[in-house]
Amino acid sequence: MGVDKLEKIFRPKSIAVVGASEKEGSIGSALMRNLIEGEYAGDVYPINPRRNTIHGLPAHSSVLALKSSIDLAILAAPIISIPEIVKECSEAGVQGAVIISAGGKESGAKGRELEAAIKQEAEPSGLRIIGPNCLGVICSRSKLNASFASHMPLPGRMAFISQSGAICTSILDLSIREKIGFSYFVSLGSMLDVNFGDMIDYLGGEPDVSSIVMYVENLNRFRYFMSAARAVSRIKPVIVLKAGRTRAGAVAAASHTGALAGEDAVYDAAFKRAGILRVKTFEELFDCAELLAKQPPVSGNGLAIITNAGGPGVMAADALSDYGVEPVKLNPETITKLDKILPPYWSRANPVDLLGDASPELYKKAVEICLEDTKVHGLLIMFAPVALRNMADMAKPLVNLLRKRPYPVFASCMGGPDAEKAREIFNLSGIPTFDTPERAVRAFMALYRYSKNIELLQEIPSKLPGKMEFDRKKAGSIISRGLESKKHVLTEVEAKTLLSAYGIPVNQTELVASDTEAALKAGELGFPVAMKICSREITHKTEADGVMLNVQSESEARDAYIKLIERARNYNPDAGIEGVTIQPMIKQIDCELIIGSKKDRDFGPVILFGMGGTMTEILGDQALALPPLNRLLAGRLMEETKVYRMLKGYRNRPAADLMLLEEILIRLAQLVTDFPEIDELDINPLIVAVNNTCVADARIMLKYSEIPAPFHLVISPYPNQYETKTVREGIGDVFIRPVMPDDAPLLVELFASLSSRSIYNRFFSPLKFLSHNMLARFTQIDYDREICLVALSETETGEKILGVARVINEIDQKHAEFSVVVGDPWQGKGIGAELLQRCLSIAGERNVETVYGHVLSENTQMVALGRKLNFKIKRVPDSNEYELVIDLRSGARARGPGIGSQ
Predict the structure, then answer these.
(1) Is 383 buried (19+), middle (13-18) or exposed (0-12) by CB count in 10 A?
(2) pLDDT tens digits along 67-111
(3) Separation in Å, CA 190 to CA 197, 222, 368, 401
(4) How far apart are CA 179 and CA 447, in angstroms?
(5) Pairing, β 604-611 against β 622-625
(6) Which residues have C-beta within 8 Å of that of residue 7, sequence separation ≥ 6?
(7) In three state form, how does the secondary structure of 601-635 look?
(8) Quick one: pLDDT at residue 387?
(9) Dihedral over Cα of 158, 161, 165, 170: its sign
(10) For a Cys staple, 536 with which of 187, 260, 365, 489, CB 3.0–4.6 Å?
């Protein structure tokens, strides 16, 4: 992805400023002043053919006229000249460019043409571009202010990325007032080249960055964005304010950035799946940023509240209640200690109300006691102005006490001028302050929701009993015939046949073409029956009055057929009518659900689950998720709806078969994963009844897809093309496949088969067990970024993993690191060689250039395997390790026995 070249943008040794100027108030002058008067230590070369000197530095006619090599070019010339300047930069070997100039795609067709020309000139050399139409970039570590912002941020470990320059400068100004530090400020502008995915990838590997905050108007390269976000959010918090939540906001965002905003609910689902915390307002974004920048991560929702007034304490408790959380119940020992120092009429509960005359000393003692409570995950200290006490005097004794706590400690100083000094004292000490209790609680709970979501994403999903099988050939045939039809719509019978091919239970449905046939078929199915019009042109049957229920006899079936045909012709005289469908009535219905999929233009197929029936749109009880799904993700999707409470069992209603519903969602997700031609899929209703959960009606719209499976998804699905079988002497049949998220228990068993020596050789430490986080990391992989194959054998008790090999890409996607482990009982059988050979072959297909690994010198088996597979082996200086490297470009790929055996 060329992310490695971003280093030259943010830590350049030399900069050329094209469009440099001394004219007061010009962007070119502001850029030069920031670079020269700031602390940037590299070389700066102003480019302006009409000037001899600029800000005391000799001016040059062009980038090509420079004799020195240039890492970064900042372009502030008129947009019409930028394509030619970018061409010069490419020819001069410049690594990165920041285009400040406006007038790109946001200005219309001419601007889009200019951006296309700029991109064309940059591509031959791989020049990376930020912008156009951007504020510029700031990097605290390199003292670089390559922007026209008026000042540098305070040093810190948070990165801020924004499409809007105005949002950048607003956050920058506020951060200085609130004493919040940043390591990076990046204005992406129109994102001609470098985008949010690139920046997340780059910042994810930066040790100076502990969290990432973003203002987003639109995204591009959605699959890459999701891949980068999923990788980084597990190690660093990522917070986003996505503009364009409303229809009016989306239109405004489009005119501002030249791209339309996607459906907001889909963005919610995507951000949640990626592990990103989404906030809704600028205020919330800044509040979360402040808490992230100054305090440790939130590990639980146990918030203790200390206040000198009852009203603000109640407000804070109410704010918590809005999230379904109560103030943490303090330990009895804490209450006893507080009893000894507080007046007898204190609240004796959390919030801890110290009353209006509380002295600074009393505040300090109460805070000390609450800090020792083991149930507390966060502490909110509140001050309300009172005539008896000065807020600043109350704040001073707390500063040293609150430093370096293992959980967030923050304050709410309510009021105006009386509160300002106290806020300043806390801010200077790294303690976040908020004007109101609600803002404080909202920031705390937002970060708690983030940590909880990451925790849930790393849970180990359980397996479904049995292996899921799909009739892809039959499904493909149905879809091909549907695409040949005029409307690209499947009939109800075709839709149900397609769903059935993927193991989704359907109510038996027959198509009849006459009233006589209707009477006979209804009798065979057994009364009562339901009858519906069958027409590709009438997709919503109820609108055409095209459904008749509880048909009780053959004569009623004849009459129903005639009436349905007549109604359909009245509703749409031009509709092609194929007949009437008949299906048995389900006598006892506990619940009606809707499940389905719609192909979003940005994120591809999106899975929907919710309350079904004719009132589904009015009730609006639905949730969305992105495929692929597993049991854990399917369960979470259902839990997000109100109808889930009913499905768990409510009063006299029995619980639904939740495992079956999870399986149906997984099968549906697999169907839209395998066939990008499915544009819309509606199952409404999915009938939930005792011992009978099935599809009662289905509607499927098709559309030719320019993107083949699985690249129409934004999350890489399980790559079943890498499944294969082989045979090993002494073991028998061995099944090789990519690792799955529910393989964690099998990895635990594999670890138990390893000797202490094998463990040390693999992990370079005497590891005693695989932690939950390690298991999640090893099994929940991004198949776009990592190759991991496991070898399995069948035993009487089920599957057993014999060995694992993986190749993990670096950020640049050109280089990767390998690892191999085989259980002690199966070493020496060629399993490690087979697995690694296949991983290297896949890496070569994906244009990885080199693969390397480090091996302990005493691990002679691994060294021998490296020689066998044509790795170059060299001793690492001053260590007991070898480095094994193979170049996949040279044709020297591993060629060992066993490959291709089935």
Answers:
(1) buried
(2) 788 999 999 999 999 999 999 999 999 999 999 999 989 888 999
(3) 14, 15, 50, 46
(4) 20
(5) antiparallel
(6) none
(7) CCCEEEEEEEECCCCHHHHCCEEEECCCCCHHHHH
(8) 65
(9) negative
(10) 489
